[in-house]
Design a protein that fits this description.
globular; alpha+beta; two-stranded antiparallel sheet; Alpha-Beta Plaits; disordered N terminus; single chain; four-stranded antiparallel sheet
């Protein structure tokens, strides 16, 4: 057991069922609200004959600075002006979609999670 897993497990015990703490492998599991443990080094999940990337969404302030910053971090970042997403972006925010595809997916996700204006990143299921 590593330190990160041990701390997360201890926190789950201390919370006593008050909140669910998933097995995210990110440096900030409070922001990344989905399980990243099944994602391989290329950013894909699923069986060998059906691999796919994981799509995610988050909100950023409606301003050029934050959008430019997330685009520099994540080339898969796609702003969706006017959309709220299931995450529920507010009127002063822009919904951004991204994907885990690519070898540096974990670094990108961790860097996004560390941004002060990104409060939550959740998985998207296109239904």
């Amino acid at each position: 057991m590593n330190l990160r897993t041990g701390v997360a497990g201890l926190a789950a015990v201390m919370l006593g069922g008050c909140a669910w703490i998933g097995p995210a492998l990110s440096s900030d599991s409070r922001v990344i609200a989905f399980d990243t443990s099944a994602i391989d080094e290329d950013g894909l999940v699923g069986p060998p004959d059906g691999k796919r990337s994981v799509a995610y969404e988050y909100c950023v302030p409606k301003a050029p600075g934050p959008l430019d910053e997330v685009r520099r971090i994540d080339p898969t970042a796609e702003p969706m002006p006017g959309a709220r997403g299931r995450i529920g972006c507010g009127s002063t925010q822009v919904l951004v979609l991204g994907s885990t595809v690519g070898p540096n997916w974990r670094e990108r996700l961790d860097r996004l999670a560390a941004l002060p204006y990104v409060r939550r990143i959740r998985e998207v299921h296109f239904e």
